[in-house]
Amino acid sequence: MRPDAYLCPAQPRVPGPIRPHPSTTMLTEAILAYLHLAAILTMTVFITSEAALCRPEWLNAAVVRRLARVDVIYLFAAIAVLFTGLARIIWGMKGAAWYGAQPLLHIKVTLFVLAGLMSIKPTLAFLRWKKAVERDGSLPAEAEIRSVRRWIMFQAHLILVIPLAATLLARGVWTR
Q1: How do residues 137-149 score in pLDDT, each as one tens digit?
Q2: Distances (CA, A) of 109 to 27, 29, 159, 172
């Protein structure tokens, strides 16, 4: 008996490819969703850490080094978000054709790319600050710290809009 025969018991058996059991598909979808959510939460934790650490009143040599490390972890988390999202599109139940036609997915990706582009300035600043600390122990000016923190906050608030598009997409709002 074919694995999907229980779905339509009244229909005669038709030769063709064997489809995976629906529970296998659901398990794959659940694992992909879990990995994507774990990556998103990791990214959120580390952008929040950057925002918390990047303050003129707290900045010292140890914090500069920590910011540089946190930023690397944030980068890897963002890459994980991107790859797990692509995995959901490729191997998820809805498939690439469905996702490709959805304007909300394009909005999500655009916001994600914008957030990534916004992270370049803080990343370069952290690397520059770390180099200065290691070279002669100098710390950045208060105005520069505030400017970089502002970029981080804009980025964090932009990232906050992405789950709205995701929940609308998941519930079929404005889908094609």
Answers
A1: 999 999 999 999 9
A2: 25, 20, 11, 17
